[in-house]
Design goal:
The protein is an alpha+beta fold and about 120 residues long. The protein is about 55% helix and about 20% strand. It is built from 4 helices and 3 strands; from the N terminus they run H-E-E-H-H-E-H. A 3-stranded mixed β-sheet has the order 1-2-3. Strand 1 and strand 2 form a beta hairpin. Helix 1 crosses helix 3. The chain is globular, with a radius of gyration of 17 Å. The mean pLDDT is about 90.
């Protein structure tokens, strides 16, 4: 049962952070951000939060800077919402899988057009 705990904590962190970013952050740099996944270490000391940001590369970087700037606030609010002895350190990273999948889909569409 202890092996499943990091997964449950990761899902709870994902849910709560999504709500916090959507409702509590007022930074104008933060655009349309979606949390695609959270990986928590086995000792629950760190959480890698994967983000997908809609917009240009400049908007993505600005959103990441805004979220990193608010990481202390997010961590403290997360500590209030999730009952853990220690709140994990939050590490934010871009999730390129959505863009990669979109590119693959576009290429497959071009190939199918060429075949017809």
């Amino acid at each position: 049962m202890a092996n499943n705990r990091p997964g449950r904590v990761a899902e709870q962190i994902k849910k709560e952070l999504s709500l916090l970013i959507q409702n509590e952050l007022k930074d104008p740099r933060i655009g349309f951000v979606t949390i695609t996944g959270v990986d928590v270490t086995n000792d629950l000391s760190q959480a890698k939060v994967y983000l997908s940001v809609f917009g240009s590369e400049e908007e993505k970087q600005a959103s990441l800077k805004g979220i990193e700037r608010a990481s202390g606030f997010l961590r403290s609010e997360l500590g209030k919402l999730i009952r853990l002895r220690h709140t994990p350190d939050l590490i934010f990273k871009f999730d390129e899988s959505i863009a990669y999948g979109s590119r693959i889909e576009k290429l497959l569409g071009e190939i199918s057009k060429e075949d017809k």
